């Protein structure tokens, strides 16, 4: 798969400008690369409904029909409309997975077990086998925290490389979930590094989850939060030590965090060669 650090074209939704003006001003003043705005979206969480890039020409698009939006169908973006506008022709799958629940390595992906609930008509074995076929990658399954209504892996962990993950401080999880996470780490022979995490324990808020950074080219755009100066400094120092060859750019988020997402959630990037992806301007 194409890793985020290998991409060269970055997108956000225009809805951010309408709904999160102050956060957006800080984002656009901090992003040091060219980016494009998508006008065909019904919400700001572009990571969830945009496709996964396999190589320079191939994409896979999973079905974006999350159970948490069953009462808010007006928020579900038409994936095909966006892809057609960008002149992307992905392979479409009927498997229901939000992009935020697919954490990519080069030849491995991590997905939370929420997918079994979202695709109850399939057996877990057949579901994993089909995802592995589509993504041409090995699938690792991690547990979903009981109170996590989204069930997105990018709120828990990220790949540093195919053998090492960056994960939230495990002490923030209840003992039962922590044991399952540790079992998943050990059974898949993964090394891990913990990152500071101080969740509000609000049902929706993503405040305190530094793991949901935006990785693009040589940059790590790291979310930071108000009234958390000590935690912010610790997170910046930790991430800087893990990625010494990257430029770490902190961005303060307030209203976006309260809606349950951060910088990875609101962004999507791809590798576009020979301008085969239309610029969304």
From TrEMBL:
KW Zinc (keyword) present: no
Keywords: Hydrolase
Top-level taxon of origin: Bacteria
Record-linked InterPro entries: Peptidyl-Arg-deiminase_porph
Molecular functions (GO terms): protein-arginine deiminase activity
Signal sequence interval, chain numbering: none
BP terms from Gene Ontology: putrescine biosynthetic process
Name this polypeptide is given: Peptidyl-arginine deiminase
């Amino acid at each position: 798969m194409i890793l985020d650090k290998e991409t060269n074209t970055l997108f956000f939704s225009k809805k951010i400008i309408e709904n999160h003006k102050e956060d957006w001003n800080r984002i656009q003043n901090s992003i040091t690369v060219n980016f494009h705005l998508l006008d065909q979206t019904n919400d700001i969480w572009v990571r969830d409904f945009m496709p996964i890039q396999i190589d320079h020409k191939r994409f896979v698009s999973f079905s974006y029909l999350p159970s948490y939006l069953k009462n808010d169908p007006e928020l579900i973006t038409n994936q095909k409309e966006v892809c057609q506008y960008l002149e992307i022709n992905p392979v479409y799958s009927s498997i229901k997975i939000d992009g935020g629940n697919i954490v990519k390595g080069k030849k491995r992906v991590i997905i939370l077990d929420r997918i079994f609930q979202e695709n109850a008509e399939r057996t877990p074995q057949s579901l994993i086998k089909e995802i592995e076929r589509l993504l041409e990658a090995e699938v690792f399954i991690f547990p979903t925290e009981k109170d996590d209504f989204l069930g997105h892996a990018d709120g828990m962990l990220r790949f540093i490389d195919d053998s090492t993950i960056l994960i939230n401080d495990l002490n923030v999880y209840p003992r039962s979930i922590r044991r399952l996470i540790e079992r998943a780490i050990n059974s898949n022979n993964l090394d891990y590094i913990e990152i500071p995490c101080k969740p509000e324990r609000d049902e929706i808020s993503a405040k305190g989850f530094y793991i949901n950074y935006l990785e693009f080219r040589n940059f790590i755009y790291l979310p930071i939060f108000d009234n958390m100066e000590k935690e912010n400094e610790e997170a910046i120092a930790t991430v800087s030590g893990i990625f010494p060859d990257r430029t770490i750019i902190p961005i303060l988020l307030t209203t976006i965090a309260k809606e349950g997402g951060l910088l990875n959630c609101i962004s999507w990037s791809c590798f576009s060669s020979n301008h085969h992806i239309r610029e969304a301007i």
